[in-house]
Amino acid sequence: MTLRNDIETIIFSEEDIKEITKRLADELTKDYEGKEPIFVALLKGSIMFMGDLVKYVDTHLELDFMDVSSYVGTKSTGDVKILKDLSSSIEGRHIVIVEDIVETGATLNYIIEFLRSRKPASVEVVTLLDKPVEDRKLDVEVKYVGTKIPEGFVVGYGLDFNEKYRNLPYIGLLKPELYE
User: Fold this and answer.
1) Where is the Phosphoribosyltransferase domain positioned along the sequence (predicted)?
2) What is the pTM of this model?
3) 82-87, Cβ contacts within 8 angstroms, sequence gap of 24 or more
4) pLDDT in tens for each of the 180 residues of the chain?
5) Mind telling me the catalytic residues?
6) CA-based angle 153:156:161, to the nearest 5?
């Protein structure tokens, strides 16, 4: 058995992801030229996206990471826990939160407010994937959106189900019988 056998449909190939990532990087390069932003990856899901994204951003920047937990299986608990905080001060700095997927908005809203309390110059969000807005519990503004995705549980390219499938080089819909 291979991991591919657990995937119902591949919705974004490696090439699709690369094209989306380059487009977002071009927008970020233009908007943050000369501002030296701090890109903050939310671990673990966004690590692959962040790694590829910053390769194409053509301006000075810094990297930092936060480890945030709010999921059990396929559902958000609504209880956000910060397992790893930022390594440096963000006061007066431009922050770009790098997210793999925006779903309910609860975790992202919490992180945005948490970071804003530290008085950065700005806080924006870049996400590779955006679930339909009707799935949102909270209205969260995401300035840089890679692509909208269909209903279903997606895995691969950093996205997981119980810590599995992150290592797939593409994004696919997990077969429902594996998580229902």
Assistant:
1) 15-161
2) 0.92
3) 82/114, 84/43, 86/40
4) 688 899 999 999 999 999 999 999 999 999 999 999 999 999 999 999 999 999 999 999 999 999 987 755 555 556 788 999 999 999 999 999 999 999 888 889 999 999 999 999 999 999 999 987 666 677 788 999 999 998 889 999 999 999 999 999 999 999 999 888
5) 103
6) 50
